[in-house]
Design brief:
five-stranded mixed beta sheet
């Protein structure tokens, strides 16, 4: 009798062939079946091998609690790349893992064709797992050389700033490419655009064939004040903190590169999960080689994944990205055809997807609403307006889900000022958390650090790091 493993391998090969015949264009996928505890570790760490840090342990415990309470079931974890890597749980049934294979192929197609995923691939290549493992090894060496306390302090600061990158910039930036505030009525420009004409001439000269000498730019020193507008905080601190050691800068740049890698997954979650769900449903439906009972079990698992409600049909007060994305893709394909859907898949992220393709008719069909909680504990519908719905869904995605904060001034004494752009951010900060993050930054900047912000009630606040931090 054929083993379950052999059956899954056979179904995987045949589903891949079916996907190609239906027009999917995906990177090769390496599938691996792993124990449930290993899958939980991968889901928590974000990568199979990643830099060690205490915060991942806390997330692991939280995930175990969620699973124990029946609030979380991990079917698969997939890492985009060339090849993609997908992990399936060995305790899942054959029907569940067959569904997961089809789902992963939808993800692999999305990752190969969507512009944000392609942009990262162009900047960093498709071998994130190997690169992450190499970085983790480098941090293990730093732990041996410098001790856990010093290395952990740097990791605390870097991971506290994990989402604070400029997603519109390049992964590999020249040290001189800081952004400065633009004069009124003009676009802001990087430092390299503000070089003197003589410096620009020398830069062009040394870029000629046979001329490899680099232009020596005047280094930033604490002896003069510098006004800037730099939102890529991980890059900025790694390159311009006055007294950071090389291994500390490497940690910041490692966290930054992983943050760039995770951004397309974050920015396209509804599109990506919906696309994968649409294709796993279609592939299973057209896979006439699957036994009928396996197909029915797989479709039941599909229904559990894309259901709009919480357990026991309770009202759901959060968006299920699988359900919303799946419903939107079905609506788009039904009205406009698969080629239009493919074009949207290539060109959009969740912002364009929701604003351009979630219409009032579909929102009403899905019974979407914005709710508010009252002091008495009541939960009431606040709005069903389509514009309010769209912006409420997208609000947590603005600026990678983080407050929009820029480095805006370096004083003559090397002190650093940060400014929270709360007007475009649309929110104030939790002061206790902001204090904690500022202390992390001060530990690596090693000079006074101040942040201009507003609190949760909208009152202006200036926070300054304590002296004992440096």
């Amino acid at each position: 009798m054929t083993s379950t493993s052999e059956q899954l391998q056979d179904y995987t090969r045949r589903i891949e062939d079916l996907a190609v015949s239906l027009g999917l264009d995906f990177y090769p996928v390496d599938f691996e079946v792993v124990p449930n505890n290993f899958m939980t570790e991968i889901a928590v760490y974000g990568l199979p091998v990643r830099m060690p840090h205490w915060s991942f342990g806390i997330r692991y415990i939280h995930q175990l609690i969620q699973q124990g309470m029946g609030h979380s079931h991990i079917f698969e974890v997939m890492f985009p790349g060339d090849p993609c890597h997908a992990y399936l749980v060995n305790e899942n049934s054959l029907s569940e893992n067959t569904l997961v294979v089809a789902h992963v192929l939808g993800h692999a197609d999305f990752a190969k064709n969507n512009h944000l995923f392609r942009k990262f691939m162009d900047m960093a290549g498709g071998h994130i797992l190997e690169q992450a493992a190499a970085r983790a090894h480098g941090i293990e060496m730093a732990l041996e050389q410098h001790g856990q306390e010093r290395v952990e302090a740097v990791l605390d600061a870097a991971l506290a700033l994990e989402p604070h990158i400029d997603v519109n910039s390049e992964l590999h930036r020249d040290k001189s490419s800081m952004v400065f505030p633009a004069p009124a009525g003009m676009s802001r420009a990087p430092a390299t655009a503000q070089l003197s004409s003589r410096q620009n001439f020398h830069r062009r000269y040394h870029q000629l064939p046979g001329e490899s000498l680099e232009l020596a730019l005047e280094p930033m020193t604490p002896s003069r004040e510098t006004v800037l507008e730099e939102y890529d905080l991980l890059w900025f601190i790694a390159n311009h903190a006055p007294d950071m050691a090389g291994w500390e800068r490497d940690i910041f740049l490692a966290v930054r590169e992983e943050s760039f890698y995770f951004y397309p997954v974050f920015a396209c979650q509804i599109m990506n999960e919906g696309w994968a769900s649409y294709w796993h449903a279609r592939l299973l439906r057209e896979a006439d080689f699957l036994p009928h009972d396996l197909y029915l079990s797989a479709i039941k698992a599909h229904s559990d994944v894309v259901r709009p409600f919480a357990a026991e049909r309770q009202l759901a007060l959060a968006i299920n990205p699988y359900h919303l994305g799946f419903s939107m893709w079905e609506n788009i394909i039904e009205k406009h055809g698969i080629e239009v859907a493919r074009s949207i898949c290539r060109e959009e992220d969740d912002f364009g997807f929701i604003r351009n393709h979630l219409d009032a008719e579909l929102a009403q069909k899905l019974d979407l609403f914005v709710y508010e909680t009252h002091a008495d504990g009541d939960i009431r519908v606040a709005s069903k307006d389509i514009h309010v719905l769209r912006e409420t869904i997208l609000a947590p995605k603005f600026n990678y889900g983080a407050p929009r904060i820029a480095a805006t001034r370096i004083g003559q004494d090397g002190s650093l000022e940060l400014t929270h752009d709360h007007r475009s951010d649309g929110r104030g900060l939790d002061m206790s958390r902001a204090d904690r993050v500022l202390e992390y930054i001060a530990q690596v900047w090693r000079r006074p650090v101040t942040m201009h912000t507003v609190d949760e009630r909208g009152y202006a606040r200036d926070i300054t790091s304590k002296k004992e931090s440096f």
